[in-house]
Amino acid sequence: MSVDIEIPPIEHSLLPQAPDADPLSVEQRYYTRYYTRPLVQDPVSCVPPTDSTDSTDSTDSNERKSPTDPFKEAGLILVHSNRICLVCLSPHHTIHRKGLKVERLNFQVTNRINRLDNLDVKGKSKRGAQVVDENAILAWIECDNGERYPLRSQVKGKLIEINPKVIEDPQIMVDQPFGPGFVAIIMPKLPEGLSQLKERMVTEDEFKKLSSS
Amino acid sequence: MWTHEIETVEAIQGVLNELDCSDICRRCVLRLAGVKKSHEFLKVADPPTPATDQDPTEPESKKAKLAEAPLSIPPCCRACLGIMQDSIMAEALSQIGPQLTDCPFDADHFTLAVSVPTSLALREHSLKLILTDRVPGFFEGCVVPVKQAWKWINGPKFEAVMGKKFVTGDSCQFFVEFQVTLAEDEAEKACLVDMCKLEYLQRQHKQKTYHMGLVTRVALEKSLQDVSDEQFRKHYPVPPTRPLSRFQPDVKMTHNSIFLAGRYNKYSRELPQTPWLVDGERKAESSVEELIISDIKEALVFDSTNFSSSGREDVDVRMLGDGRPFLFELTNPRQTMFKPGELYEIQKKINAHSKIVQVHDLQLVKKAETNRLKEGEDQKTKTYNALCRLCPGKNSTNLMSMTDIKAKLELIKNLELKQRTPIRVLHRRPNAVRKRSVYFMEVTPLTSDQFKLRLSTQAGTYVKEFVHGDFDRTIPNLSSILETEKIDLDWPAKTHPS
């Protein structure tokens, strides 16, 4: 061993940080939060995104046609520094605003597609995974008041996994949106998946600016 | 030589003379006759090549025939292109002489090899055909390959020029290859396309498989095996014609790789082990590999390096303790023998150069020992230091006391974990569940919300995820036991035999 090198003990070997900074959680250190752009309050100009991949359902189109609630499709994506995306329920979503309780998550999103069937995903490039685009529905959130809301992917790519914890206990999606309550892991199609997401959605700072103006 | 050998030699010589192929050197005649004793070849010193085209007593018709091939170059044997002929080889040796005498390799033994133009096989096949026809004692299978006979004669010649000892056999690590290139090689091979039309038509279409060239050595040998005599004669002269140009000699010297091994420590939290590139852009300035190799590159000359190590650590993790075993393969090294202390000097330079990487026990190892490097990787136990910070959970305002934490964690032995692939590596690893064990833990409290954790785990355990839980993709985890979230990690890898 070299005698000239001083090896600081671990507590003194950390990368420089502001000394009084609050300790950041794992989610805060490694992920960037992206929110759906806050919509203008004028209900007439609200045009919710059309769902191109799933078959039409009459209740779905009725919901789509009622333009009064701009928050029912509010999305939150946590983007890791390695570009993996976690799809979460936004704290600005109607469910939060109305204080609704989530009864269950229904993953049978169309007649043919069930998001839980995504089990045969092999290898580094995740072959066999369900391919989703930004409008694809990952789950129907069924609330205890009978209403249901679609949770959309927000990013184009491959569905890697549905969070098993949120299947057991959907309420954590509401209670712990930043991290533990994530619903799905998506590997974005590079490069356009991520770049399109960054165009359509905004970071937390931008969101605050746009909301207050 | 045996009597029957002498007879065969003379019979062959006779036929060749009749066919105006008397430029074929005596040594080639010997090898065509199947003479296997190397000293016979050496006895035939500097075989003269009779200038048959200058004989004034030749009948006109023969002269006219010979005049077809204009003699623009001094005659050489059409069977070996002159490489078996002392005078021609002497010329060639003087051309490549400087490369041999200024040899940068420090090896004191060498083995010899020769690479000949592919078209030589065509010439050989052609001679075999004609001799099978005309000489009853000739057996195609007895012909000594030109490469073999060439080595018998030229070993001593190269020895004299290089000042190194010529050896044969597998134990030699240093190779000298005499390369013979003939300008008309391509043209000669082209006839093969017509000779075996079907085969080469296929090859022309399948560009991808046959991208190495339409007519390769292997392809040629196979074609010659299958082709019929008449088909061959239609497309290639039997016997072969004189070569139109003299060959170009060259020499290539290579030495087997040497291996430098050692152990390294890493004290930086911003240094990757190997160069880190994303989309062609560097994400970190340097790497452990590059810091070690830069001083080695200054001291030694070699073609390239291959780095490997017994496991690796993250960019933001230090490597403490005795250090991690690593290996550098240096290909085609010019220096292969080191004076005592020479490698130690290089090690000192590396350590003086960069404070964030330190190397120990730098040494030369034999190739046979190199597979020991990977021994520690998946079987052994690894020991880590982690700095853990408590963040109170959403609903609880009290932190567990340090004494309670210490008591609780140190009681845990051989904890079995189920780890799903951490999200931070999910982009380059398949999604899977891994069973791993934490053998024991030691707690050193620092403040009311920080403690040092020393833990011993099974190889392949994701320690960061064990501490913070990765949103419960690793269970159980410290977070679930204690609600801890922040970690910084060290790795003193004291590997224990399991």
Protein architecture, described:
The complex is a heterodimer of chains A (213) and B (498). Chain A is α+β, with helices and mostly antiparallel strands. Helices cover 21% and strands 24% of the residues of chain A. In chain A, a hairpin with a 4-residue loop joins strand 6 (137-143) and strand 7. The longest helix of chain A has 9 residues, at 192-200. In chain B, strand 13 (433-445) and strand 14 (450-458) form a beta hairpin. Chain B has 17 helices and 16 strands. Chain B has helices spanning 3-18, 26-32, 38-43, 60-67, 86-101, 120-134, 146-162, 185-195, 197-205, 217-226, 229-235, 288-299, 342-353, 375-379, 402-411, 463-468, 478-482; strands at 109-115, 165-166, 174-181, 248-255, 258-266, 277-278, 281-282, 304-309, 318-331, 357-365, 381-390, 415-420, 433-445, 450-458, 474-475, 484-492. Chain B is elongated. The A-B interface holds A 1-2, 5, 7, 9-11, 13-15, 23-26, 29-30, 80-84, 86, 121-124, 126, 160-161, 163, 165, 176, 179-180, 182, 185, 187 and B 267, 269-270, 316, 318, 320, 351, 355, 358, 360, 385-387, 389, 391, 394, 423-431, 446, 450, 452, 468, 470-472, 485-486, 488, 490. Chain A: Residues 42-70 are annotated as: Disordered. Chain A: Belongs to the ABITRAM family. Chain A: One of its GO terms (biological process) is regulation of actin filament polymerization.
Give me a quick take on this structure.
The complex is a heterodimer of chains A (213) and B (498). Chain A is of the alpha+beta class and 213 residues long.
